[in-house]
Amino acid sequence: SEQEAYRKLRTQGRVDGVVLTDVRHHDTRLDFLADLALPAVTLNRTDDASPFPAVTLDDERGTRDAVDHLVGLGHHRIAYVGGPEIYLHSTRRRLAWRSALEAHGLVPRVVVEADFSASSGARAMREVLALPRHQQPTAILYANDAMAIAGMAAARQAGVRVSEDLSIVGFDDAELSSHVNPPLTTIRSDSYLWGRTAAEVLLQYVQTGIKPAERTLPPAELVLRKSAAPCLGGGS
Questions:
Q1: Is the pLDDT at 29 greater than 90, yes or no?
Q2: pLDDT at 150
Q3: More confident residue, 80 or 191
Q4: CB atoms within 10 A of CB 134
Q5: E-only strand ranges, the chain
Q6: How many other C-beta atoms can be found within 10 angstroms of the C-beta atom of residue 28?
Q7: Could you check whether the bond before residue 212 is cis, i.e. omega within 30 degrees of 0?
Q8: What are 36-65's pLDDT values in tens digits?
Q9: What 3-state DSSP class applies to 100?
Q10: Edge to edge, what strands does the sheet with 40-43 contain?
């Protein structure tokens, strides 16, 4: 159905190019759009050779910084709630979380695959809290803020105090993140800069017919707020 939508947009002359988000492992859209002669730009690199330019952002550094920060606060059991593994960025961030823990000599144990929706973030929290007490994490890193905020609500419903009993970190720095209670520690990526840069690259590609060079954005950065706090015990 997605391919048919691209085909209609192209044959009906409704668009001159597209931005491909949520790039997938071995993304079949690349060859399909190339066959349609429809210019495109990908948000981050692909894992296969791509006929299209990319706008890239290092989101792994922010993930590693978040793990380093939590370990510095005394947390040793740090869980990860990520998005569907079909997406390259889901795999990339999960592996960054894993390697950061291993760099501290810690064993990555609790991983929950969700779907980036708020409801899946709450479900992941309930799944984590259902683990035996000695296996429950003292901190959770979520792959986006919507899941993290819903997870905070689910934790409170279960009688768990966010920051005192359980630290939570999100990703994206959505507008709501600084207004929840406690304010959400998160990893900021500039979505507006991504969109503007992608549009500039795509316009250049459409106008010249020459594949532009890859554009690299400033890396994602950790934003410290109050949802992540020192571990009060049981962090080993």
A1: yes
A2: 98
A3: 80
A4: 7
A5: 18-20, 40-43, 54-56, 78-82, 111-113, 139-142, 167-169, 186-188, 215-216, 221-223
A6: 11
A7: no
A8: 999 999 999 999 999 999 999 999 999 999
A9: helix
A10: 18-20, 40-43, 54-56, 215-216
